[in-house]
Amino acid sequence: MHWNARHGFGCALALALVSLGINQGLCIGYESIPSFADWVKANSFFAESAFRVLQGCLWLLVVYIFSRTRSIRSFVGETGFDRRPTFSGWLLSWAATGLGLLDLYVVLQGWSRANESAPPHYYGGSGPWAFFVVYTVILTPFFEEVVMRGFLFQAFRRSYGVVVGTGLVLCVQTYFHWGLVVHDFIGFLFLTAGGIALCAIREYTGSTWNCVLFHAAYNATVLRQWPVCVVGMLAVLSCVRYARPKDSPVTHGTSDDADSLVGKRSAPGNDT
Questions:
Q1: What are the sequence ranges of the domains in the chain?
Q2: 86: DSSP letter
Q3: What is the distance between the alpha carbons of residues 109 and 41, in angstroms, rounded to a whole number?
Q4: What is the pLDDT of residues 15-44, one digit of tens each?
Q5: Segment among 11-20, 50-59, 122-131, 184-193 with least mean pLDDT
Q6: Which of 116, 124, 131, 134 is the most buried (most CB within 10 A)?
């Protein structure tokens, strides 16, 4: 893996341009093509869902291009998806449910704003609500963690270290959640706390699946999908990896660090 901050900044800019391009394209199509506008009005929930999935897939494509990996298998490995969830990651995901419960509490107290996109889907019928839950609990965590912790965190961390790398990822994350936090300081604090926790999980467990699990548990909790959360957590427990001390990413560097170390040991003149 040879990612650095240059790749990270370029990828973040490309992601922003993709999102802006989709929004502008939809606005232009809605205003200039009556048949498209009529279709969106008649199928508003389906249209929104389709465009959300489209954006997520384009994000994955952008990250794959900037990763410069030779194959999908290599990409999976470099982004930390070749490592199964660990037991420590599974335990930390229960902390995500606690963070989600705290979020619900402050919303009920009126200290923070509720998620405004959930009620229209809930009252839109079982179909729109079911897709919204699936997208929020499963697809969103996967899309975002591939981008944020799988690629960007690793790229920034390699150039600036863990602390600054985490801060830069938080900046990108806040940009894409700006509509949720611009008028909600408490919501911003929850977003920041969750982002820091996710970067720490990626750093110290080595598995991006742990980040997806943490993210999914939090989203399921704030949507009050208790059965989905509990059943999902118990199902994941059956496939977690019980890491031994020597498997810890804290004691072992990344694959490219290991390769460089091997290179130094095997290079002439280094046998001192």
A1: 5-243
A2: B
A3: 35
A4: 999 999 999 999 999 899 999 999 888 888
A5: 122-131
A6: 131
Amino acid at 263: G
**pLDDT tens digits for 72-106?**
999 999 999 999 899 999 999 999 999 999 999 99
Phi/psi for 270 (5° steps) reads -100, 0
* 59 neighbors 15 (Cβ within 8 angstroms): yes
Written as one letter, the residue type at 153 is F
Q: At what angle do helices 44-67 and 5-32 cross, to 10 degrees?
A: 150
Place of tokens 């599974």: 90
Q: Are 143 and 56 in contact (CB under 8 A)?
A: yes
Kindly report the backbone phi and psi dihedral angles of residue 238, in degrees, each rounded to the nearest multiple of 5, phi listed first.
-75, -15
pLDDT tens-digit series, residues 173-193: 999 999 888 889 999 999 999
Tell me the CB-side half-sphere exposure of residue 248, using CA atoms within 13 A: 8
Whether 157 and 88 have beta carbons less than 8 Å apart is answered as: no
Q: What are the distances in angstroms from CA 170 to CA 12, 164, 174, 200?
A: 12, 10, 6, 12
